[in-house]
Known about the structure:
The structure holds two protein chains of two kinds.
Chain A lengths: L5 H23 L8 H22 L9 H22 L11 H24 L12 H29 L10 H28 L1 H40 L8 H15 L4 H13 L9 H5 L6 H8 L1 H9 L6 H8 L21 H15 L11 H10 L7 H14 L36
Helix pairs in contact in A: 1-3, 1-4, 1-5, 2-3, 2-7, 3-4, 3-5, 3-6, 4-5, 5-6, 6-7, 8-9, 8-14, 8-16, 9-13, 12-13, 13-14
Chain B lengths: L2 H4 L8 H24 L4 H16 L2 E3 L3 E3 L1 H12 L2 E2 L2 E2 L4 H21 L6 H18 L3 H7 L8 H30 L3 H32 L5 H4 L1 H28 L1 H4 L7 H15 L4 H12 L22 H16 L5 H8 L13 H16 L5 H12 L8 H13 L7
Antiparallel strand pairs in B: 1-2, 3-4
Helix pairs in contact in B: 2-5, 2-6, 3-4, 3-5, 4-5, 4-6, 4-9, 5-6, 6-8, 8-9, 9-11, 13-14, 13-17, 13-19, 14-16, 14-17, 15-16, 17-18, 18-19
Amino acid sequence: xxxxxxxxxxxxxxxxxxxxxxxxxxxxxxxxxxxxxxxxxxxxxxxxxxxxxxxxxxxxxxxxxxxxxxxxxxxxxxxxxxxxxxxxxxxxxxxxxxxxxxxxxxxxxxxxxxxxxxxxxxxxxxxxxxxxxxxxxxxxxxxxxxxxxxxxxxxxxxxxxxxxxxxxxxxxxxxxxxxxxxxxxxxxxxxxxxxxxxxxxxxxxxxxxxxxxxxxxxxxxxxxxxxxxxxxxxxxxxxxxxxxxxxxxxxxxxxxxxxxxxxxxxxxxxxxxxxxxxxxxxxxxxxxxxxxxxxxxxxxxxxxxxxxxxxxxxxxxxxxxxxxxxxxxxxxxxxxxxxxxxxxxxxxxxxxxxxxxxxxxxxxxxxxxxxxxxxxxxxxxxxxxxxxxxxxxxxxxxxxxxxxxxxxxxxxxxxxxxxxxxxxxxxxxxxxxxxxxxxxxxxxxxxxxx
Amino acid sequence: xxxxxxxxxxxxxxxxxxxxxxxxxxxxxxxxxxxxxxxxxxxxxxxxxxxxxxxxxxxxxxxxxxxxxxxxxxxxxxxxxxxxxxxxxxxxxxxxxxxxxxxxxxxxxxxxxxxxxxxxxxxxxxxxxxxxxxxxxxxxxxxxxxxxxxxxxxxxxxxxxxxxxxxxxxxxxxxxxxxxxxxxxxxxxxxxxxxxxxxxxxxxxxxxxxxxxxxxxxxxxxxxxxxxxxxxxxxxxxxxxxxxxxxxxxxxxxxxxxxxxxxxxxxxxxxxxxxxxxxxxxxxxxxxxxxxxxxxxxxxxxxxxxxxxxxxxxxxxxxxxxxxxxxxxxxxxxxxxxxxxxxxxxxxxxxxxxxxxxxxxxxxxxxxxxxxxxxxxxxxxxxxxxxxxxxxxxxxxxxxxxxxxxxxxxxxxxxxxxxxxxxxxxxx
Lengths: 450, 428
């Protein structure tokens, strides 16, 4: 609490105060919460508490899908505005070890306010606070939708305001697409409250169990999915790094190309699924290099045409290796064509301009940039400025100008950590390559035959 | 494990599957015939639930281990079976009509898949139908009594709920047993192990389906049939999560399979070696009664057992074979384990790879998976992609000379069974 800036403190006090006043006022009016409602209220509060406590039990931060919204909105129908406020206020007690008291207090207060306001809207739209009768379900629909449409945005706004005042949120950081997704899914969870309320007359609290069980299991499965995803990312990175250990100087190249490609993709506004795919494509773009005989890569001086052809084959080899994986087709195209040039003088197909798949144009920029900003056995790393200048110089002939501009912007925004390879220890022979096919400043020279 | 389950006659290999598909076919035809004869009772509900079954079938998904499921379709079928009344009017449809509606819905839902060349797995769809039918025949005769027990839907539902829960649980148990029997037959694993595997896979999804099925039945009591789709929504969320999970699991395996091949493309090992070793190891592991999570680790380890070659300056042509010096082989294993442990998540796989060269009679007995890979790897080194029977027998003989010392005799026994059984032991 100490480290909160003073506007945030004032806001906290205001929210908690408002919640307290609303609840106290509601309780003071004798007919607002009927005697038989207390049992229902207790069950709902318990339910809400369980739902609020589960995210941390599962430890899924990104997937903190709030099932508790369902319980809170069921309370709006079943026990009215004051009841919903009381149910929301129990968030203070949620089992979340390590959550500081002021955050608990804020959580409880904002849920209480949201519950109260949603209850008020529900009432104004003609909803009656009671256990809905069988057959009168359709009368509930309109008022409930209104309540949910107020509850969810209010919750997000109250919360976002706190984050903003506490300085943890900058307006330009909020991705609009993510926000919309968030909003829609929360609204979805809120409507499940209607199912709970609608069935309450028949089987009381069992209705909540029946509605929430699939949701809990969904959350569990989602947690499993995220764990697998993390594990997968770690595995693919480790295996790609293993492939490139052959050359001392290119270590870490694949992960850096992957992150640079993702940066460009983000900059040009790609969707999350494609961004993920280009991350993998960038990671795997050079796996085919293992098929290039080491002696070709280690050869000093000019290559024969045959040797150069072996190098030019590596994108195809890479594609051959990864073809069995269920990636987006674009990812394969990216791997296959990452050495094409805008002027059509690249390989393996000699595509030009817009013929080159978007993924390939992105990876080409990321690939060359990382190569230039890393040490090579035959030269030191260039500075970021030099490398950017080089990208700009070749923009239009080798690189897609759009991607170069996007990348320069992304680097300006997020910075770039060039690969740092410590100079090889003197007593140990390390394997190094005499040339880097990714380096635009030192093109591979080929002996002109005949 | 008895001798009989180890070596079933080849003709009986698929008998359980045939039986199930046949039973499902007979049920579907009988259900349709009875319904046609007696007329459709309460057509509106039948169409509504049938449509939901079709939608669920359309949205079927494949879980890890190539298990096809259709949670929404199953829940809809469950809901139709458990239906007591629609808005207070008692539901009187007989069990045969439930079967007919299920069969019709499944057929309609499978058609679009068929149209694009993705036929359903016959045994999976048959199992869904048979399990649903069993429940229908057990529950439908009780339905009028249960509805009366609720006082026409206005009184206490506890008795009805209890009966529903018990019967649904029993149906899920029967379904697991059927799935396990099919699996045991298909991949030749022990029935006991298969039951455990199926239970682990089916429990979360089964619980969701059961809850949603009951929810659908109750919802039809309180609300109009139009609300059905809404009540399937919680299950839809579950299905989305499971689809994502199944997707990443599949991609994971494909990626390890693909990247294990880099050693072959690089010319470090013979082409197809890691894939053959992994297949042989898997079959041997199943023969020895390993459960699915262990088998997955075994598969990863077997695929990547030679990946340490990538770190060697001068790779050994042909790979770390039984013919290489033990010192070199150990080094490759060690380097491979180092690469794998860099993932930070596959520690057990790394351990298996590290110990794949350890002798069985060594100071510390290596894990079972490592012993299996040691034997399978040695066998493939000697035989390669060839399907020559004499060569296979000679290789096994050679391995058997190291039984008890280098190799685990139990592993060799299982390996021999696997190789003798296969028409061509290491076909790709």
